[in-house]
């Protein structure tokens, strides 16, 4: 608000709006206003002096000298008349003889006012009241020119003081609002782990606001000093992004790492908020935040997608190999369907174990999943004693198929076929390599395919002929080839040994 505008003045409604906007009515005394009324009373030799503000139905005194009442009704106010002529100082030499005031209670009552002089207080083109002096004695000569000038200057000073007071209040309100906004922004930045920064292109300075991790600049620092905080391999891309933001007047965005922590990434985003005389960015402001979690999440998603593709392709390859092998092992359609289904079910059990373990499977649980259907329908003993370890998805599938083939053949031709048969699965873990040992006791003597008693054909009679078929699978069959190929793909190996009355299969593979 500006003081002293002697042109077209505000009407009553606007005047009251300006007065109320000052937020000064009914406030406590203030030293600067009291000093003005003291100066007026002393300089003009008056009994009393007031800074009077004319409200809708009263006049209220912001400051008063030698006057007991804080306000009077507007109906008995001298100042009501004074504000009607904002460019003039109103002087009443003898109120008792003035038709406007001779019956006024302030004249006829105890106050006994005779002399009045008031200079309007002009704020925002509105006459809000006066700085006035009163005396109980008439002054036929009124005020001298010098005294009138003093009163007007003091009134201007009072109006400016009112204006300044309102400005201070506005600043205080803005500061409170700014504090609230700053608090909200700080909370938001803290929650998002962000830092606000300003880059003054013309002075080559960067200032950061906020206390967060990363290459912080608490005070103003040159761009060169800031760049020294950036990991060396990230400086050139960052400088290119900064130059592009200036040359193209475009949004600035860059990712970089700090020298002290090259495993953590930060993303800075900003845009020009002020241009120079040539229209080039002069001030660029923005935010910086830790983008490491987002990058890690993206890397994880990429790795998971790759793993999923690998797992699907691997599973398709396994199913294809199983289909080919099953077709070669069977002649009848129903036999193919039965055998192929059992092998797919073994794979399905593996997947259920994998899902429960989130990409890894507990080794003991995996083996039990393969053996479960055979335990239900067989009286033979199957013992398991393996290390408490987890195996990867791909190794789980390989072990499942190997164990399924061993168990299926044991059921058809070996230990699980005979009442006295037994299977023991043991294992050990050493230097990151897993060793599993399948020890199968058939309860009957084993003979190799090339034994003197026969060539392994069905004509070689009886129960011993069945055992020979089992050895054919282990010594030279398709199952052995597939098992060895799958183990080799895992970086491991599988060995088959035939002894007097047992089959020994050893698997070694890195975890």
From TrEMBL:
GAF domain location, by residue?
28-172
Entry keyword Phosphoprotein = yes
Q: What is this protein called?
A: histidine kinase
Top-rank taxon, per record: Bacteria
Kinase among keywords:
yes
Q: Which UniProt keywords apply?
A: ATP-binding, Kinase, Nucleotide-binding, Phosphoprotein, Transferase
Q: Where is the composition biased (Acidic residues)?
A: 453-462
Native organism is Pacificimonas flava
- Which segments carry the region annotation Disordered? 445-466
């Amino acid at each position: 608000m500006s003081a002293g505008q002697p042109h077209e003045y505000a009407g009553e409604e606007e005047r009251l709006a300006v007065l109320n906007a000052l937020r000064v009515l009914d406030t406590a005394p203030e030293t600067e206003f009291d000093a003005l009324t003291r100066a007026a009373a002393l300089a003009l030799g008056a009994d009393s002096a007031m800074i009077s503000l004319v409200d809708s139905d009263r006049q209220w005194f912001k400051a008063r000298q030698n006057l007991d009442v804080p306000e009077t009704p507007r109906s008995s106010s001298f100042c009501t008349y004074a504000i009607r002529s904002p460019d003039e100082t109103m002087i009443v030499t003898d109120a008792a003889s003035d038709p406007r005031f001779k019956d006024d209670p302030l004249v006829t009552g105890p106050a006994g006012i005779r002399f009045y002089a008031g200079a309007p207080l002009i704020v925002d083109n509105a006459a809000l009241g006066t700085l006035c002096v009163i005396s109980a004695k008439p002054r036929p000569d009124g005020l001298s020119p010098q005294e009138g000038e003093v009163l007007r200057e003091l009134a201007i000073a009072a109006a400016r003081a009112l204006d300044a007071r309102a400005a201070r209040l506005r600043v205080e309100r803005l500061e409170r609002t700014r504090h609230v906004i700053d608090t909200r922004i700080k909370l938001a930045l803290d929650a998002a782990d962000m830092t606000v920064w300003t880059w003054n292109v013309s002075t080559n300075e960067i200032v950061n606001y906020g206390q967060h991790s990363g290459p912080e600049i608490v005070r103003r620092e040159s761009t060169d000093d800031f760049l020294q905080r950036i990991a060396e391999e990230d400086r050139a891309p960052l400088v290119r992004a900064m130059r592009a933001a200036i040359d193209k007047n475009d949004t600035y965005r860059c990712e970089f790492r700090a020298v002290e922590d090259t495993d953590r990434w930060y993303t800075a985003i900003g845009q020009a908020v002020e241009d120079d005389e040539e229209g080039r960015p002069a001030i660029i402001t923005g935010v910086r935040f830790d983008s490491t979690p987002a990058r890690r999440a993206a890397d994880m998603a990429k790795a998971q997608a790759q793993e999923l593709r690998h797992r699907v392709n691997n599973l398709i390859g396994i199913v294809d190999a199983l289909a080919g092998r099953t077709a070669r092992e069977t002649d009848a359609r129903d036999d193919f369907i039965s055998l192929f289904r059992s092998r797919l079910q073994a794979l399905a059990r593996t997947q259920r174990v994998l899902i429960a373990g989130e990409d890894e499977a507990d080794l003991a649980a995996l083996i039990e999943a393969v053996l479960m259907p055979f335990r239900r329908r067989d009286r033979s003993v199957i013992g398991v004693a393996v290390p408490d370890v987890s195996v990867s998805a791909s190794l789980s599938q390989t072990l499942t198929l190997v164990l399924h083939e061993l168990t299926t053949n044991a059921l058809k031709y070996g230990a699980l076929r005979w009442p006295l048969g037994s299977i023991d699965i043991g294992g050990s873990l050493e230097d990151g390599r897993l060793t599993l040992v399948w020890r199968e006791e058939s309860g009957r003597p084993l003979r190799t395919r090339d034994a003197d008693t026969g060539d392994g054909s069905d004509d070689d009679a009886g129960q011993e002929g069945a055992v020979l078929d089992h050895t054919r699978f282990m010594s030279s069959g398709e199952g052995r080839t597939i098992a060895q190929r799958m183990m080799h793909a895992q970086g491991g190996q599988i060995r088959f040994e035939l002894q007097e009355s047992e089959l020994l299969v050893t698997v070694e593979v890195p975890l």
